[in-house]
Write a structure and sequence with these properties.
This protein is α/β, with parallel strands linked by helices. The chain contains 15 helices and 20 strands. Bound molecules: nicotinamide-adenine-dinucleotide. The site of nicotinamide-adenine-dinucleotide has 29 residues, from helix 7 and helix 8.
């Protein structure tokens, strides 16, 4: 019988009440591993272990925390090829894309290792003579971490690393679909020297394990990445809880890429191809709305569809594959339903959108491009989270900017232009947390803030030094 990978609670790896097989979307006969399914009782034990560990960990020396995170970064780097293969098998992104993600996880661990020793405070005079004011940051406490399936190692790393660096303890639940990289990361961090109870892992469904984390007494803050609907419920539960919890939400996107008549056509097509279809379009920052001015529209569509023909869809581990499979059958059904909807709404499917047969059974879909879309259509308003993009024709820059901003989301926005005036105006006026000029809307650096506006994000930014806003709480001391 296959041994299941257990949950990490306190000092032990513990079996769950059941198990769940982790299925490879490139080959559904390949079981990547069998993983424990936890319960609300496991969450309660994990929270108790984290609470017990907090006094020691929150007063641990910064160099101790630095050392642990650096050792973890070194192991992730040393095992990069093995971890990238595991990632590509469980999520379906290509091996090249998976290598990039694993490298990013290592960078994040190393970045926050340094942040642990970089945390400083401020002092200054009080308005009262003879009194000094000191502003310091302290860890928040026990952090609940809930992550989605599309970045199985990078998103866990960018939440767990700052939580630990700033002295917090963690109860972590990864997405059900991708527990393998999450388990490997926790194992690496534990062996790097974390005291027992500092980092706990409880795998299982969102509605039971996730909900238990959000509502458990003893959780001080929740950081979540996932869909808007889940995020909204989590925020409400965090505020309703006793005590109220700090909450950080990173959610969906419907990111515009505005292509102007004066754009370099090759730059624009490369940005659209990467932004819309790489990583199978399963990125919160994907360019799913391509907003194109009249003068370049037809050339842009012709060149993009030609470039799409060169995108080989296949098994994530096949070196010739450029686009891996959709992550699971449920997401594939959503993608196909939106492709149908796009047609019904009157958009024109000019490329892709077909189920593909490959030597192994998997969720293969050719990247789909719609033209003649309007910004009112469901395919332009709702996040699909698959390799499906639509082209919206606009008259000029002003209509393009208004269309780009006419969305419930605000994560990333891009423009392709050779005009400094328009690039500058767009950077200032795009209603998004991240703005890209002559670059895909997806693809961000790990050392600077990540996050959005409107329905895409809620609470402080993630990553870079800005991460401390969520993972620490400020104390103002007065000394007479
Ligand atoms: P999801 O909302 O279905 O699930 C996310 C996580 O929440 C999973 O671990 C899930 O088990 C858990 N969960 C589900 N219901 C819960 C509940 N009631 N209480 C607590 N936890 C619960 O999202 P997904 O399908 O895993 O991921 C795709 C979504 O993530 C997309 O909308 C995408 O845009 C978004 N995403 C956003 C970012 C970002 O940084 N903005 C990054 C990656 C993905």
């Amino acid at each position: 019988m296959t041994m299941a990978f257990g949950n990490r609670i306190g000092a032990e790896w513990r079996a769950g009440v059941g198990t769940r097989p982790n299925i490879n979307p490139s080959d559904t006969t390949d079981v990547v591993g069998v993983f424990a399914q936890g319960t609300a009782a496991d969450v309660a034990d994990a929270v108790a272990a984290a609470r017990a560990a907090f006094p020691g960990w929150s007063h641990s020396g910064p160099m101790d925390r630095h050392g642990i995170l650096m050792r973890a970064a070194a192991e992730v780097t040393a095992r990069a090829e093995e971890l990238a293969t595991l990632l590509a098998r469980e999520e379906g992104k290509t091996l090249t894309e998976a290598r990039g993600e694993v490298g990013r996880a290592a960078h994040i661990l190393a970045f926050f290792a340094a942040e642990a020793v970089r945390l400083t405070g401020e002092t200054g005079p009080s308005i009262r003579p003879g009194v000094t004011v000191e502003v310091t940051r302290e860890p928040v406490g026990v952090i609940g971490i809930i992550t989605p399936w599309n970045f199985p190692i990078a998103i866990p790393a960018w939440k767990i690393a700052p939580a630990l660096a700033y002295g917090n303890c963690v109860v972590f639940k990864p997405a059900d679909l991708v527990p393998a990289c999450a388990w490997a990361l926790v194992d690496i961090l534990v062996r790097a020297g974390l005291p027992e109870g500092v980092l706990n892992l409880v795998m299982g469904p969102g509605r039971s394990v996730g909900q238990a984390i959000v509502t458990a007494r003893g959780i001080d803050a929740v950081t979540f990445t996932g869909s808007v609907a889940t995020g909204r419920g989590i925020a409400a539960a965090c505020v309703a809880g006793q005590p109220m919890r700090k909450v950080q939400l990173e959610m969906g996107g419907k990111n515009p890429l505005l292509v102007l008549d004066d754009a370099d056509l090759d730059v624009a097509v490369r940005a659209a191809l990467d932004g819309a279809f790489f990583q199978t379009g399963q990125r919160c920052t994907a360019s799913s709305r391509l907003i194109v001015t009249e003068g370049i529209h037809d050339r842009f569509v012709a060149t993009l569809t030609e470039a799409m023909e060169g995108l080989t869809v296949g098994h994530a581990l096949d070196p010739s594959t450029r686009v891996g499979p959709v992550a699971d059958a449920a997401q594939l059904a959503i993608d196909l339903a939106y492709i149908d909807k796009g047609r019904t709404e009157g958009a024109r499917l000019v490329a892709g959108g077909e189920l593909l047969n490959r030597p192994t059974p998997g969720h293969y879909l050719s990247p789909a491009l719609f033209t003649e879309a309007t910004n009112a259509m469901a395919i332009a308003r709702e996040e699909i989270f698959g390799p499906v993009a639509c082209v919206i024709r606009v008259r000029d820059y002003d209509e393009g900017l208004a269309t780009a901003n006419d969305t419930d989301f605000g994560l990333s926005a891009g423009i392709c232009t050779t005009s400094l005036k328009h690039a500058t105006h767009f950077r200032r006026n795009a209603e998004a947390g991240m703005v890209m000029v002559n670059l895909p809307t997806a693809g961000v650096d790990p050392h600077v803030p990540f996050g959005g506006r409107k329905g895409s994000s809620h609470g402080p930014r993630e990553q870079g030094s800005h991460a401390r806003e969520f993972y620490t709480t400020v104390k103002t001391g007065y000394v007479g």
